[in-house]
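Cast an eye over this sequence plus tokens and explain the fold to me:
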Amino acid sequence: MDVGNSIRVLVVDDSAFMRKVISDMLNKYPGIQVIGTARNGQEALKKRKELRPDVMTLDVEMPVMNGLETLKQLMEEDPCPTVMVSSTTKQGAENTLLAMEYGAVDFVTKPSGAISLDIDKVEHQIIDKVIYASKAKVIRKEEKNVNRPLSNRVVPQKKMNQKKIVAIGISTGGPRALKEVIPKLQASIQAPIVIVQHMPAGFTLSLAERLNSLSDITVKEARDGDFLQNGTAYVAPGGFHLSIKKKGDAFVAHLHTEEPRRGHRPSVDVLYESLAEIPTVDTVAVIMTGMGADGTEGLIKLKKTSNCYAIAEAEKSCVVFGMPKAAIRTNLVDEIVPVEEISRCIERLL
């Protein structure tokens, strides 16, 4: 292994067993080298300064200084790409979402609690997310609210006279990006919003509840058979695809467990393809930060069969410029804007 070109990782967990197992997993991969471990947040911050890792894996629940406090201080003082390692409890899910807001790149869930003897089940996830985190953009906390100039591009106003749906596809970096968009939408918005965020079961409900507490619009986890209402956002549940069907003059959420697409369930492609089959709806398709290319195939079908206005998040505000980049390459995207402009774009179109 060429140590000089390896991704240098600091593993932080209060359990000696978990520190050893996660370190062994990562060290097996030829492009990763674990350069140190820490058993609590205070030790982690000290070793961050001493060792200068490229990526940290950070346990959420620890004594002395927990993962959230550690991450908050880290992002304020000395940002480092971080992958959270959390439990699947409701409290664990809520804390993990807060960590995403504070600036963590991604998270992995322990299969069976704080000390998971079966952690090997998520070995590939841990390795993949550490690799992606090493390439991700990490912004200092004080930089997040810097006023950037609005796009000076003159955008033609598309006629959108039919019923409308806003369909958002998002992945890595999603919770923080959605917090920049959804709470800025007015409750009077004349369209329902449907959201596919790549996230496992158990976390999407906490995401919806968190966004709902911050927003004027209503945000909920989608249920099969929900009639879509204007001023309400529906988050696809982890483990289920979300499709939209027409029923009379109404639009209805349909949840199903068909095969994952591009490794994802829920899938943005599946959502967009379902909307492409409804010619009597105007779709505002929004593709935001995330790795991979989910949403691109669906966008192509949407543009072919229906009136669709496509917005992609600009590279400068993406944690990972994967999904928007793939969509932009199709030359079907109407507007490319940083995350802080997306809500205004949506409201202008509606």
In short: The longest helix spans residues 16-28. Residues 124 and 345 are 38 Å apart (CA to CA). The two ends are 54 Å apart (CA to CA). DSSP finds eleven helices and 14 strands in the chain.
